[in-house]
Amino acid sequence: MTLKKLTILSAAAFLLLGGCAQKKPTPGDSSNISDSSSITGDTINIDESGGAAGGANGSADGMKSLYFGFGGYELSSDMTGTVAFNANAVRSKLQGGTKIKLEGNCDEFGTDEYNYALGLKRANAVKDGLIAEGISSSQITMVSLGESNPQCQEATDGCYAKNRRVDLRLAR
Amino acid sequence: MRYLIIALFTLQLFAVDASLKIEKDVEQRSRFSVVDMSGGSAGGLGDKFFNTMISDLKISGHFLPDETHHRESMQSDIVAPNLKSQEYVLKYSLSQAGGLSISVKLFRATDASLVATRDYAIPSAEKYPFLAHKVISDINTILQLPDISWINRYVIYSRYTGVRKSEIIIADYTMSYKKSVIRGGLNLFPKWADKEQSSFYYTSFGDALPTLYRINITNGSKSRITSSQGMLICSDVSSSGGKLLLTMAPDGQPDIYEMSAGGGSPSRVTNFAGIDVSGKYADGDRSVVFVSNRLGYPNIFKQSLGGGSVSQVVFHGRDNNAVDTFEDKVVYASKEGGGTFNLYLTNTGGSDTRPLTSSGSNQFPRFSVDGSTVLYIKQSTGSSSIGITNLGSNQTLLFPFGGKVQSIDW
């Protein structure tokens, strides 16, 4: 069939079908030729502002944050002293289900998933350091907050360095 | 003869001048004019609606739209003499009375023959971009051109609104329509759960552990999928929707796991002491392409889901930390110094690699549902744009929008 014939037949078919298309379409009118139902549904609007997320950033309960280099997640030799200080600060408090919560954080560079994994590897390095100081693995919990929890939001190298850190606090 | 000359020039010059291919493509696209017969009934949507349809026509790769906003005050089936040089003329009348409705007629320009008529109506005028997309998608179908129904789909993304605060937003692909679906709290990494886009997965940080939920976007029904210490992200959903690829760390080590969407225990896919993230189904869901730092820097690798060794997919760049797949196609972001990230297209065999962008910070590449188009975010100082590249026609459009994206899917 030539394109011209096809066009004529198409036009004829649409004219026949379109005979009822002169009236003004209205929402939900079943006589509409087009199926626009896929774009009519309303969508949810949930507000969780009162939820449990949020909270302070930085370390608490007498412990100090540990800071990492760009893209790095290894504990350097000068960080082991801080890890030992943190272990000693809370060792006596780790009873009755109280644990050390490690929050891994990143600067704003890097992309979505990789940045969260980087924050977790930092937390994991601190966890290994705490275990070496005699803290039980079962007394440590971790979460990566990626780039969602900055201490500083200026576009400077000094500011970015403050965000590449692991915060420590006690949690039940 | 003309084709022989074009072919010879293509062979000689394509490597150094991609514009020749684009010129050839331009010849193959249909010249197309749009005539607005709405008068005052379109309210304030006149120019926005027209511009959205023109963007749709451009990105389809099938049309060469006339960007002049032609207006006619009277309803008529006459094609004006100055539009006879076009191949098609679309005449429409948009009305905001009682919602948003539109009547469209498509004419072949040369003889003013009517090709098609369509009437549409939706209750909410704020969804006008989807109405424009639907019209152009249908016109494309009527003309029996390759499918562009991806323009009708929702984009879903998360963005930070403060320290440990975020919102999840659904939008059309031009970001003209945006609606927050979950705000407050820290909810990240939204991922569509099915091809119909009726539900999405996301990670909530509101519980003691990062927790993956699935939520229906129309009735709000929500189900908990699983939790994990450290991190938990739904990176991909299988073609059938029945399987999930997760990045999780039950023992503190970020690796890729697969689990049934219906529940059950996740099974470990990768096992590496460094970082494995962003698992994406490939090769008919038989293998997983992912980002790993197993060579000491982020790069793209592949592993069969049936087991076997890990193979390197990308042999270019030193910081390739984002990836997406469609069947055997792979798109990835590569850091190239000075804050520049460029996107590259390759395949799971690592061949036929070509750049998709050449400047700026281009990240978060995502294939359309049919693999014909790639969506990405172009960041610049203080602003962002969503970029859409048609892989067939090499057409790219950028749509500015505010805010910084945390994660995106469509």
Q: Report the sheet-strand fraction of chain A.
A: 5-15%
According to CATH, what is the class of the largest domain in chain B?
Mainly Beta
Shape, per Cα inertia axes of chain A: globular
- Secondary-structure element order of chain A, as H and E? HEEHEHEHE
Instruction: State the CATH architecture of the largest domain in chain B.
Output: 6 Propeller
Alpha carbon gyration radius of chain B: 23 Å
| Major sheet size, sense and barrel closure of chain B | 6 strands, mixed
Radius of gyration of chain A: 29 Å
The CATH superfamily of the domain at 66-171 in chain A bears the name OmpA-like domain
Task: Characterize this entry briefly.
The complex is a heterodimer of chains A (172) and B (410). Chain A is α+β, with helices and mostly antiparallel strands.
Describe the structure.
The complex is a heterodimer of chains A (172) and B (410). Chain A is of the alpha+beta class and 172 residues long. Chain A has a domain of 106 residues: 60s Ribosomal Protein L30, Chain: A (2-Layer Sandwich). Chain A is built from 4 helices and 5 strands. Chain A has a 4-stranded mixed sheet. In chain A, α3 links the parallel β3 and β4. The radius of gyration of chain A is 29 Å and the shape is globular. Chain B folds into 2 domains: 129 residues, TolB, N-terminal domain (Rossmann fold); 255 residues, TolB, C-terminal domain (Neuraminidase). Helices cover 13% and strands 45% of the residues of chain B. In chain B, α3 crosses α4. The two termini of chain B are 44 Å apart. The N terminus of chain B is likely disordered. Classes of the chains: A alpha+beta (172), B mainly beta (410). Chains A and B meet through α1, β1, α3 and β4 of A and β5, β6, α4, β8 and β9 of B.
